[in-house]
Amino acid sequence: MSLTNSDIAELTAFRRVLHRHPELSGAECETARRVCAEITSLKPDQIVTDLGGHGVAAVFDGGVDGLTLLFRCELDALPIPEISDQPHRSTIDGHGHLCGHDGHMTILAGLARRLSRQRPKQGRVILLFQPAEETGAGAAAVLDDPKFARIAPDYSFSLHNVPGFERGHVGLKSGPVCCASRGIELTLTGTPAHASQPETGTSPMPVLSWVMPRLAALSKGDTSDPDFTLVTITHASMGEPTFCIAPGEATLFATLRTLTDDRMQALCDTALEIVDQAVSDHGPTAIHRYHDIFQHCENDPLATGIIATALDTLQIPHDQTGLPFRPSEDFGRFGAVSKSAMLFLGAGTDTPPLHNPRYDFPDDLIPIGTRIFEQIARDMLG
Q: Where along the chain is Mn(2+) bound (predicted)?
């Protein structure tokens, strides 16, 4: 139950092609095309395309009634320029596979190779290549797509590579494993004025300067605390880059993060109370909008135990160190339709962090991830 040396070489080449051609959330057309070409050659029993956008699902059917297992990866890259001298570095200016989704796709392509040679004895395995994970929109779009009903799973599994963990070591626990988060965009509108007469206008500056540190001060605790909160200011701008105008408008972006969904509304309410107080004191109007809404990701105990059994069979070390994670993952939405669990595969302690311009998924994780997923499938379906 393993990939051949030829498989690994070909999959590594496939991963590097994906890495060279990153596409952003919602625009993964060519990535989906490459995935379809790779998977079609393996003759799955069914391929579903344009799922929730550019999503692709490949079905390997055992031909006997049984459970449906879904293994999910992500198609999208990031709007971050890559810094690399590797020959497979990104060819798209300003875009890069700096979260390892190219590696996740390749692991599912490796699993497809194994399933093409030996179908499950019963049930079905669904390999889902999901769009738009980075914005939090993709999983919801897939689940809302009427085509999803044809492949609805009993169990859903996923993995994410994690720099900072020993390479090949797995983080695994039941319960919350990734935080809920959402972006809040504030638009402050006053009245511009001549820079020599700022008193004739209404500046957003007092509100902006008062709100930012108070929002950041809402952060408390760490993810071991059920009441963990984190507010990160990610962008602020005010007026135009000129010396003759006292600005009348400003924009502020912040990311709100909590351990679980039920804590998020309270954090949002508190953040808006801070904004309302500043506006009432200083005059500009404020409009808020939410973006990139992620539900928290919670591992079902039974699904987590299935992963643990597979890891023990393969003698792959695992523990709960570092969990739950601060980052968010829209895989959590699959927990509403199936028993779901995500594992976290160590990418090495000397590897740049995720979303770093120098990050590159370690190719030697491809056979490890493939073995883990196949072991789960064989344990459950034969």
A: 99, 101, 134, 160, 355
